Amino acid sequence: MAAEIERVYLLRALPTPLPHGEVWRIEQGYLPLAPVTPHQLEGRLRRITHSDGSVEHIHTIKSGIGLVRQETERSIDSETFAREWPRTIGRRLEKVRTRISVGDRVWEIDQFTQIPLVLAECELPSTDAPLDIPDWLAPFIVREVTEEPAFRNAELALRSGLLTGQ
User: Fold this and answer.
1) Degrees (nearest 5) of the Cα angle 91, 95, 98?
2) How confident is the model over 38-44, as a mean pLDDT?
3) Beta carbons of 62 and 74 less than 8 angstroms apart
4) What is the CATH number of the domain that holds 114?
5) In Å, what is the CA distance from 25 to each residue of 35, 149, 162?
6) How many domains does the chain have?
7) What is the mean pLDDT of residues 24-31?
8) Coil, strand or helix: which one is 25?
9) Strands (DSSP E) along the chain, which ranges?
10) Average pLDDT over residues 111-140
11) Are 134 and 59 in contact (CB under 8 A)?
């Protein structure tokens, strides 16, 4: 597993105007695992529809919470995705992600479709790497939620599934 170093921010709304970026439509579901613990493994299936209409399917394993998590990703074919997707019922979410390059960083702005929530995240090369908040984003930040488990996508998917029956 490789380290994923990422800071996450709760936004009061989708930034407007939002700078031009690549837009992805993401459906993701979490495979059934043991009850959530701080170092639990998460198994995730993701279908990404890219701006050009191409579709990508990814299986991800993550562990840990907070700033540094361990992550392994692999592409899977659409048949594998379709076969495994039913196992994620009740633990799914959908979001529209806008990926915006700012210098040597990529900010990802996620607007969730089933729940009224917008998050911004940015991956870093190291835990002590500086992160400048872009001027277009700063007014929309409520607070950093990197260390708050309630804002992990796995937790959001479970809450969303309970609300929508997905």
Assistant:
1) 150
2) 74
3) no
4) 2.40.320.10
5) 28, 24, 21
6) 1
7) 96
8) strand
9) 2-11, 22-30, 41-49, 55-63, 68-75, 92-102, 105-112, 118-123, 141-144
10) 96
11) no
Tokens representing 71 are 């992550």
pLDDT in tens, 47-78: 999 999 999 999 999 888 889 988 999 999 99
What single-letter amino acid sits at 78? S
Q: Letter for the amino acid at 19?
A: P
* pLDDT at residue 164 in the model: 47
The phi-psi region of residue 148 (left if phi > 0; otherwise alpha if psi is between -120 and 50; otherwise beta) is beta
CB 50 within 8 A of CB 22: yes
Write out the residue range of the structural domain in which residue 146 sits.
Answer: 2-164
The neighbouring-strand residues paired with 58 are: 46, 75
pLDDT at 116 over 60: yes
* Identity of the residue numbered 88: T
